[in-house]
Amino acid sequence: SGNWSEDGCRVSWTNETMTNCSCDHMTNFALLMSVDQPNLLDNIIIDTISHVGCIISIVALMLTIMIIAVSWK
């Protein structure tokens, strides 16, 4: 369980970028991967957006806690 099994499947054809398999049972198969090198600029932009989003979330959480603490009766 949890491992890739080749039972009931065979390679129909393959080339440099794709492999097509045929199976005699109804199961979902998928393998997703990127063969391209990651774009450094995209990674920098995503990291920056993630950091800004985390900072905004932390500030909003702190403000919420302060407002609740002040208005607590």
From TrEMBL:
Domain GAIN-B stretches: 1-39
Q: Is NADP there in the keyword field?
A: no
- Matching SMART domains: GPS
Q: Tell me which domain of life the UniProt entry assigns to the organism this sequence originates from.
A: Eukaryota
InterPro entries in UniProt: GAIN_B, GAIN_dom_sf, GPS
- Give me the segments passing through the membrane: 49-72
What's a single GO CC term here? Answer: membrane
Q: Which UniProt keywords apply?
A: Disulfide bond, Membrane, Transmembrane, Transmembrane helix
In which compartments does the protein localize?
Membrane
Mind telling me what this protein is named? GAIN-B domain-containing protein
Give the taxonomic lineage as stored in the record.
Answer: Eukaryota, Metazoa, Spiralia, Lophotrochozoa, Annelida
The gene name on file is 20216134
